């Protein structure tokens, strides 16, 4: 049940620290070897793989897209991410040593199932991350990781997205550890649930106040760069699916190639501008938006004076290890969409036209 929350979605947003804690309880170190319960039986020869091909839909696709950036930083693979629905129209030209990864909350998404069957038929191995061990995707994959998020009832995926991000991050650590024998700092991971818990309770009122300022707007542009871009896509998807407000995620560097024409004082920009390697370019992009008098909301670092002066509303992350920022930022994006939808009196747990699992192609 809802445990006193008005909607399952809000309950599931607040469950995220717990989900992360549950996942981390399956992770151990034996001397310097990283062990993850679901991964130990996976007999993939990681050193032989040349390419990793990630396939998913919707929110799960965003998790895969994020993982592409994360993995590419430290793993020696060429990584491709594709929407499962697009796979029908592609001629697969990949090396024999390609590992396919599918990601699916339900494990019943028709396009994911058909991709899985198609690539298996061609002799490729498939590793799947799924929240339902009994599902078709889980049963038919060669290897399977249980997301352990618990049943998700809200149609908008929240805690399963977090579980996907965390598992994909841990899997990267696992492969790095295997390939290069480098030590993995598990303490950093083990702090994550507590940081998320504290962050949620510290930030929720401010996110609500921000939602109150903007919920009557008709269009939102979510801007980010690099690994934050998939998260901008996710923020925009959450907003459109539950509030029915038009929202787009745009790579900030693409603005001047067209979308900047959309900016005006009625079109809020939601930027992700942490102090990371994309920071200075993001600042330039937000300045361009400000010059067009677009209202700007940003997630960025606490006490970042430059950003504070530039934007209308800064939703801060604490100045800790940047490792934590994306996980915190995701919760802000989810909460913002939730509060906007609630202020508009939307259905939230069962938005119009949407089903929890998409079983037709
Ligand atoms: C968005 C959402 C959908 C799903 C998509 C894939 O909140 O829930 O975009 O992410 O339909 O579903 P799964 O992960 O079950 O394959």
Automatic annotation (TrEMBL):
Example of a GO cellular component annotation carried by this entry: cytosol
BP terms from Gene Ontology: carbohydrate metabolic process; fructose 6-phosphate metabolic process; protein N-linked glycosylation; UDP-N-acetylglucosamine metabolic process
Reactions performed catalytically: D-fructose 6-phosphate + L-glutamine = D-glucosamine 6-phosphate + L-glutamate
Transmembrane segments: none
Catalytic residues as annotated in Swiss-Prot or TrEMBL: 356
Positions in coiled-coil regions: none
Entry EC no(s): 2.6.1.16
Keyword tRNA-binding assigned: no
GO MF annotation list: carbohydrate derivative binding; glutamine-fructose-6-phosphate transaminase (isomerizing) activity
Entry annotated with the keyword DNA-binding: no
Keywords in alphabetical order: Aminotransferase, Cytoplasm, Glutamine amidotransferase, Repeat, Transferase
UniProt-annotated location(s): Cytoplasm
Domain SIS, first and last residues per copy: 42-181, 210-351
Functional note: Catalyzes the first step in hexosamine metabolism, converting fructose-6P into glucosamine-6P using glutamine as a nitrogen source.
Assembly: Homodimer.
Name recorded for this polypeptide: Glutamine--fructose-6-phosphate aminotransferase [isomerizing]
């Amino acid at each position: 049940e809802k445990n006193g929350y008005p909607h399952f979605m809000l309950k599931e947003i607040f469950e995220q620290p717990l989900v992360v804690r549950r996942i981390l309880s399956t992770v151990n170190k034996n001397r310097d070897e990283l062990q993850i319960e679901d991964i130990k039986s996976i007999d993939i020869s990681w050193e032989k793989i040349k390419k990793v091909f990630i396939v998913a839909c919707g929110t799960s696709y965003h998790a895969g897209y994020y993982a592409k950036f994360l993995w590419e930083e430290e793993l020696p693979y060429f990584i491709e991410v594709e929407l499962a629905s697009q796979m029908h129209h592609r001629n697969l030209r990949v090396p024999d040593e390609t590992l396919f990864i599918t990601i699916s909350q339900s494990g019943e998404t028709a396009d994911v199932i058909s991709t899985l069957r198609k690539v298996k038929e061609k002799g490729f191995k498939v590793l799947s991350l799924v929240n339902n061990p009994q599902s078709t995707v889980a049963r038919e994959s060669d290897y399977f990781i249980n997301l352990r998020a618990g049943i998700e009832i809200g149609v908008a995926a929240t805690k399963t997205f977090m579980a996907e991000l965390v598992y994909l991050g841990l899997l990267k650590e696992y492969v790095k550890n295997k390939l290069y024998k480098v030590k993995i700092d598990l303490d950093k991971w083990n702090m994550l649930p507590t940081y998320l818990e504290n962050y949620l309770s510290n930030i929720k009122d401010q996110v609500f106040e921000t939602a109150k300022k903007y919920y009557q707007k008709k269009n939102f542009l979510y801007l980010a760069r690099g690994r934050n871009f998939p998260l901008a896509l996710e923020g925009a998807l959450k907003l459109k699916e539950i509030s029915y407000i038009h929202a787009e995620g745009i790579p900030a560097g693409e603005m001047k190639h067209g979308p900047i024409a959309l900016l005006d004082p009625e079109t809020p920009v939601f930027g992700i501008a942490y102090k990371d390697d994309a920071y200075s370019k993001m600042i330039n992009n937000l300045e361009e938006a400000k010059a067009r008098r677009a209202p700007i909301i940003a997630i960025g670092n606490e006490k970042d004076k430059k950003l504070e002066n530039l934007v209308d509303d800064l939703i801060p992350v604490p100045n800790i290890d940047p490792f934590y920022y994306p996980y915190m930022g995701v919760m802000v994006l989810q909460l913002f969409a939730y509060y906007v939808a609630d202020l508009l009196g939307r259905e939230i747990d069962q938005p119009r036209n949407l089903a929890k699992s998409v079983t037709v192609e």
